[in-house]
Amino acid sequence: MNISYHGHSVVKVEVEGKTILIDPFLTGNSLTDLSAQTEQADAILLTHGHNDHVGDTVALAAKNNATVVAPVEAADYLSKQGVENAVPLGLGGTFDLGYAKLKYVQAFHSSSYTDDAGVVHYMGVAGGILLFVNGLTIYHAGDTALFGDLELIGRRHPIDVAFLPIGGHFTMDAEDAAYAVSLLKPKIVVPVHYDTFPPIKADPNHFAELVKDAKVQVLAPGGSVEI
Protein backbone atom coordinates (compact mmCIF):
# COMPACT_ATOMS: atom_id res chain seq x y z
CA MET A 1 0.00 0.00 0.00
CA ASN A 2 1.15 3.53 -0.76
CA ILE A 3 -0.27 6.72 0.78
CA SER A 4 0.86 9.91 -0.92
CA TYR A 5 0.20 13.67 -0.88
CA HIS A 6 -0.18 15.76 -4.03
CA GLY A 7 -0.58 19.40 -3.07
CA HIS A 8 -3.44 21.34 -1.47
CA SER A 9 -5.69 18.58 -0.01
CA VAL A 10 -5.11 15.89 -2.64
CA VAL A 11 -4.33 12.48 -1.16
CA LYS A 12 -3.86 9.22 -3.05
CA VAL A 13 -4.08 5.73 -1.58
CA GLU A 14 -2.95 2.79 -3.72
CA VAL A 15 -3.90 -0.67 -2.51
CA GLU A 16 -4.41 -4.06 -4.15
CA GLY A 17 -4.02 -2.56 -7.61
CA LYS A 18 -6.69 0.06 -6.90
CA THR A 19 -6.29 3.83 -6.65
CA ILE A 20 -8.31 6.03 -4.31
CA LEU A 21 -8.17 9.81 -4.75
CA ILE A 22 -9.38 12.17 -2.05
CA ASP A 23 -10.36 15.73 -3.06
CA PRO A 24 -8.77 15.60 -6.56
CA PHE A 25 -8.20 19.30 -7.24
CA LEU A 26 -5.66 18.95 -10.07
CA THR A 27 -6.47 21.43 -12.84
CA GLY A 28 -5.66 24.89 -11.51
CA ASN A 29 -3.66 23.54 -8.60
CA SER A 30 -0.18 24.99 -9.02
CA LEU A 31 1.24 22.70 -6.32
CA THR A 32 0.14 19.32 -7.61
CA ASP A 33 2.33 16.87 -9.48
CA LEU A 34 -0.66 15.04 -10.94
CA SER A 35 -2.43 15.61 -14.26
CA ALA A 36 -6.16 15.14 -14.79
CA GLN A 37 -5.37 13.94 -18.32
CA THR A 38 -3.25 11.00 -17.18
CA GLU A 39 -4.33 10.24 -13.61
CA GLN A 40 -6.18 6.99 -12.89
CA ALA A 41 -8.75 6.49 -10.16
CA ASP A 42 -10.96 3.60 -9.15
CA ALA A 43 -12.62 5.60 -6.36
CA ILE A 44 -12.88 9.31 -5.64
CA LEU A 45 -13.78 10.49 -2.14
CA LEU A 46 -14.89 14.08 -1.49
CA THR A 47 -14.85 15.75 1.90
CA HIS A 48 -17.10 18.57 0.69
CA GLY A 49 -18.26 20.49 -2.34
CA HIS A 50 -15.94 23.47 -2.71
CA ASN A 51 -14.35 23.85 -6.14
CA ASP A 52 -10.82 23.37 -4.78
CA HIS A 53 -11.83 19.93 -3.49
CA VAL A 54 -14.28 18.65 -6.12
CA GLY A 55 -11.69 19.68 -8.71
CA ASP A 56 -11.55 17.23 -11.61
CA THR A 57 -13.99 14.71 -10.17
CA VAL A 58 -16.41 14.70 -13.11
CA ALA A 59 -13.72 14.23 -15.76
CA LEU A 60 -11.81 11.62 -13.76
CA ALA A 61 -14.97 9.67 -12.99
CA ALA A 62 -15.99 9.62 -16.64
CA LYS A 63 -12.56 8.56 -17.85
CA ASN A 64 -12.09 5.83 -15.26
CA ASN A 65 -15.67 4.78 -14.52
CA ALA A 66 -14.76 5.57 -10.92
CA THR A 67 -17.00 5.27 -7.90
CA VAL A 68 -17.49 8.72 -6.36
CA VAL A 69 -18.43 8.91 -2.69
CA ALA A 70 -19.58 12.35 -1.56
CA PRO A 71 -21.94 14.09 0.87
CA VAL A 72 -25.56 13.53 -0.16
CA GLU A 73 -26.23 16.84 -1.91
CA ALA A 74 -22.82 16.84 -3.59
CA ALA A 75 -23.40 13.31 -4.90
CA ASP A 76 -26.78 14.39 -6.26
CA TYR A 77 -25.23 17.39 -8.02
CA LEU A 78 -22.44 15.29 -9.50
CA SER A 79 -24.95 12.72 -10.75
CA LYS A 80 -26.65 15.50 -12.68
CA GLN A 81 -23.26 16.40 -14.18
CA GLY A 82 -22.91 12.90 -15.61
CA VAL A 83 -21.19 10.95 -12.82
CA GLU A 84 -22.74 7.49 -13.15
CA ASN A 85 -21.44 5.89 -9.97
CA ALA A 86 -22.08 8.56 -7.34
CA VAL A 87 -22.64 7.25 -3.82
CA PRO A 88 -24.35 9.67 -1.38
CA LEU A 89 -23.21 9.41 2.22
CA GLY A 90 -24.25 11.29 5.34
CA LEU A 91 -22.24 12.05 8.47
CA GLY A 92 -21.72 8.81 10.38
CA GLY A 93 -22.43 6.82 7.23
CA THR A 94 -20.15 4.03 6.05
CA PHE A 95 -19.41 2.49 2.65
CA ASP A 96 -17.43 -0.58 1.61
CA LEU A 97 -15.43 -0.27 -1.61
CA GLY A 98 -14.37 -3.90 -1.34
CA TYR A 99 -10.69 -3.09 -0.97
CA ALA A 100 -11.25 -0.35 1.61
CA LYS A 101 -14.01 0.89 3.91
CA LEU A 102 -14.79 4.48 4.78
CA LYS A 103 -16.83 6.54 7.19
CA TYR A 104 -17.87 10.18 7.06
CA VAL A 105 -17.33 12.12 10.27
CA GLN A 106 -18.04 15.68 11.34
CA ALA A 107 -16.14 18.76 10.20
CA PHE A 108 -16.92 22.42 10.78
CA HIS A 109 -16.90 24.17 7.41
CA SER A 110 -19.22 25.36 4.62
CA SER A 111 -19.83 23.54 1.34
CA SER A 112 -20.91 24.96 -2.00
CA TYR A 113 -19.89 24.71 -5.65
CA THR A 114 -19.72 27.57 -8.17
CA ASP A 115 -20.34 26.39 -11.73
CA ASP A 116 -18.94 27.89 -14.91
CA ALA A 117 -21.92 30.24 -15.17
CA GLY A 118 -21.25 31.61 -11.71
CA VAL A 119 -24.25 29.87 -10.14
CA VAL A 120 -23.63 28.69 -6.58
CA HIS A 121 -24.95 25.24 -5.66
CA TYR A 122 -25.47 23.99 -2.09
CA MET A 123 -23.38 20.83 -1.64
CA GLY A 124 -24.48 19.58 1.75
CA VAL A 125 -22.63 19.33 5.04
CA ALA A 126 -18.84 19.26 4.98
CA GLY A 127 -17.16 16.25 6.56
CA GLY A 128 -13.96 14.41 7.25
CA ILE A 129 -13.18 10.91 6.02
CA LEU A 130 -11.96 7.89 7.93
CA LEU A 131 -10.51 5.31 5.54
CA PHE A 132 -9.90 1.78 6.79
CA VAL A 133 -7.50 -0.17 4.61
CA ASN A 134 -5.09 -3.05 5.22
CA GLY A 135 -5.47 -2.75 8.98
CA LEU A 136 -4.66 0.98 8.99
CA THR A 137 -6.94 3.91 9.77
CA ILE A 138 -6.33 7.02 7.65
CA TYR A 139 -8.08 10.25 8.57
CA HIS A 140 -8.53 13.11 6.12
CA ALA A 141 -10.01 16.03 8.05
CA GLY A 142 -11.09 17.93 4.95
CA ASP A 143 -11.51 21.64 5.63
CA THR A 144 -12.36 22.21 9.27
CA ALA A 145 -12.04 24.45 12.25
CA LEU A 146 -10.83 23.08 15.57
CA PHE A 147 -13.63 21.38 17.53
CA GLY A 148 -13.78 19.24 20.64
CA ASP A 149 -15.21 16.08 19.12
CA LEU A 150 -11.98 15.47 17.26
CA GLU A 151 -11.05 13.73 20.49
CA LEU A 152 -14.07 11.44 20.13
CA ILE A 153 -13.12 10.62 16.52
CA GLY A 154 -9.63 9.60 17.58
CA ARG A 155 -10.85 7.65 20.59
CA ARG A 156 -13.52 5.81 18.60
CA HIS A 157 -11.14 4.93 15.75
CA PRO A 158 -7.43 5.07 16.72
CA ILE A 159 -5.72 6.83 13.81
CA ASP A 160 -2.50 5.75 12.12
CA VAL A 161 -2.18 8.64 9.66
CA ALA A 162 -3.98 12.00 9.81
CA PHE A 163 -4.07 14.70 7.13
CA LEU A 164 -4.87 18.04 8.75
CA PRO A 165 -5.29 21.53 7.23
CA ILE A 166 -2.94 24.19 8.59
CA GLY A 167 -3.44 27.16 6.27
CA GLY A 168 -5.80 29.20 8.39
CA HIS A 169 -8.19 31.80 6.89
CA PHE A 170 -10.68 29.15 5.67
CA THR A 171 -9.67 26.37 8.08
CA MET A 172 -7.77 25.96 11.33
CA ASP A 173 -4.24 27.36 11.36
CA ALA A 174 -1.02 25.68 12.48
CA GLU A 175 -1.60 26.41 16.17
CA ASP A 176 -5.14 25.02 16.18
CA ALA A 177 -4.08 22.07 14.02
CA ALA A 178 -1.34 21.22 16.53
CA TYR A 179 -3.96 21.27 19.29
CA ALA A 180 -6.14 19.03 17.11
CA VAL A 181 -3.29 16.53 17.05
CA SER A 182 -3.36 16.42 20.85
CA LEU A 183 -7.07 15.51 20.66
CA LEU A 184 -6.87 13.01 17.79
CA LYS A 185 -3.65 11.32 18.91
CA PRO A 186 -2.63 9.93 15.50
CA LYS A 187 0.66 8.10 15.11
CA ILE A 188 1.60 10.21 12.06
CA VAL A 189 0.27 13.58 10.92
CA VAL A 190 0.73 15.26 7.54
CA PRO A 191 -0.07 18.98 7.11
CA VAL A 192 -2.22 19.88 4.09
CA HIS A 193 -4.26 22.79 2.67
CA TYR A 194 -1.56 25.45 2.75
CA ASP A 195 0.44 27.62 0.29
CA THR A 196 -1.94 27.03 -2.65
CA PHE A 197 -3.33 30.57 -2.51
CA PRO A 198 -1.98 33.71 -0.79
CA PRO A 199 -4.54 33.68 2.08
CA ILE A 200 -3.45 30.20 3.18
CA LYS A 201 0.31 30.66 3.16
CA ALA A 202 1.75 28.76 6.11
CA ASP A 203 4.99 27.21 7.31
CA PRO A 204 4.60 23.44 7.78
CA ASN A 205 7.84 23.30 9.73
CA HIS A 206 6.36 25.69 12.29
CA PHE A 207 3.43 23.28 12.60
CA ALA A 208 5.89 20.41 13.08
CA GLU A 209 7.61 22.31 15.88
CA LEU A 210 4.30 22.79 17.66
CA VAL A 211 3.26 19.14 17.57
CA LYS A 212 4.32 17.12 20.60
CA ASP A 213 1.96 14.15 20.37
CA ALA A 214 2.71 12.58 16.99
CA LYS A 215 5.33 12.15 14.31
CA VAL A 216 4.98 14.92 11.71
CA GLN A 217 5.82 14.19 8.09
CA VAL A 218 6.00 17.29 5.89
CA LEU A 219 5.60 16.01 2.33
CA ALA A 220 6.36 17.70 -0.96
CA PRO A 221 3.77 16.99 -3.69
CA GLY A 222 4.27 13.38 -4.74
CA GLY A 223 5.79 12.40 -1.41
CA SER A 224 4.64 9.24 0.34
CA VAL A 225 3.93 8.62 4.01
CA GLU A 226 6.54 6.50 5.76
CA ILE A 227 4.80 4.06 8.09
From TrEMBL:
Q: What is the lineage of its organism?
A: Bacteria, Bacillati, Bacillota, Bacilli, Bacillales
Q: Name one Pfam family in it.
A: Lactamase_B_3
Q: Is Ribosomal protein tagged as a keyword?
A: no
Q: Which UniProt keywords apply?
A: Hydrolase
Recorded hits in HAMAP family, A to Z, give: UPF0173
Q: Which NCBIfam families match?
A: PRK00685.1 (NF001911)
Q: List each coiled-coil range.
A: none
Please list the residue ranges annotated as the Metallo-beta-lactamase domain: 7-193
Q: What is the recorded name of this protein?
A: UPF0173 metal-dependent hydrolase A6M13_00410
Q: Which protein family is it in?
A: Belongs to the UPF0173 family.
Q: Which SMART domains has this protein been placed in?
A: Lactamase_B
A GO MF label: hydrolase activity
Gene3D superfamilies according to UniProt:
Ribonuclease Z/Hydroxyacylglutathione hydrolase-like (3.60.15.10)
